[in-house]
Design a protein that fits this description.
The protein is globular. Helix content is 69%, strand content 0%. It contains 10 helices and no strands. It folds into 2 domains: 100 residues, no CATH class; 130 residues, no CATH class. The chain is mainly alpha-helical. It starts with a helix and ends with a helix. It comes from Acetobacterium woodii (strain ATCC 29683 / DSM 1030 / JCM 2381 / KCTC 1655 / WB1).
């Protein structure tokens, strides 16, 4: 009976994640264009025809419509169902670690914001200040919901990565964007200094790997969005950070 209830819960969280992921697609598209995310029906980005409700079912509608707009037949970007699907998977991963709790709600909210930051930074090479400010709300809640991270560790976390990034851009102006620095300052308070360093390490490995690949393909531009890799590192640290750090320390018998 307990197994059945858990299965139902995981399915529910996955479906909820799909629905929220559909809304995140709206935010990702509209926010950079300064279109209200609270008003107006979803519409095709090509012909601007309103999307009917039964054509707006997360993931399913993409395959039902064979990846094309029902009105103009222009292709629908694969990123839309992928964002929805990944949001559902993220909800399951957080549930597996934190259970169905207030911690899950806060961690999922953080993940949803980070998904928006990731996609918008890929598209525009900027991180909207509004999203960073919004991220501060769950970051403050983390102080109460994750008391194992002390206040001192959080204060150090604010500066442990963001300050070196700020100093670096004084000498290399294009090294990082201002949004990256603000993001890591908020993440530092949210994660504490240890998990902030872990998040940055993950971002450097992933971002560096992508940069090397693009250079090898001779398609690398002078600038590359680093925010998405920071977001991946932050989310990995939120879900699996303590596990990864514990495993790393055990290698040295600590």
């Amino acid at each position: 009976m307990v197994v059945f209830v858990n299965i139902i819960l995981y399915v529910y969280i996955f479906v909820l994640g799909l629905v929220i992921g559909s809304f995140l697609n709206v935010v990702i598209y509209r926010l950079p264009q300064e279109i209200s995310v609270a008003k107006g029906r979803s519409f095709c980005p090509h012909c601007h025809a309103p999307i009917k409700g039964y054509h707006n079912i997360p993931v399913f509608s993409y395959f039902w419509l064979r990846g094309k707009c029902a009105d103009c037949k222009e292709p629908i970007a694969i990123r839309y169902p992928l964002v929805e699907f990944f949001t559902g998977l993220m909800g399951i991963a957080i549930l597996a670690v934190y259970g169905f709790s207030f911690q899950w709600v806060v961690a999922f909210a953080i993940g949803a914001i980070l998904i928006c930051i990731t996609m918008i930074d890929f598209d525009t090479m900027t991180i909207p200040n509004g999203l960073v400010i919004t991220l501060m709300v769950p970051a403050l809640l983390c102080f109460f919901l994750f008391p194992q991270i002390g206040l001192l560790a959080r204060v150090i976390g604010i500066f442990v990565v963001s300050l070196p990034m700020l100093i670096l851009i004084l000498f290399i102006g294009d090294a990082f964007g201002g949004g990256d620095i603000k993001l890591m300052a908020v993440a530092g308070f949210m994660l504490g200094w240890q998990n902030t360093l872990l998040a940055t390490f993950i971002a450097l490995i992933l971002g560096g790997g992508v940069a090397v690949y693009l250079l090898a393909q001779k398609t690398a531009d002078k600038h590359m969005a680093f925010g998405p890799y920071l977001c991946i590192g932050i989310m990995t640290s939120i879900i699996f950070g303590d596990i990864i750090i514990g495993w790393y320390l055990s290698l040295f018998g600590l």
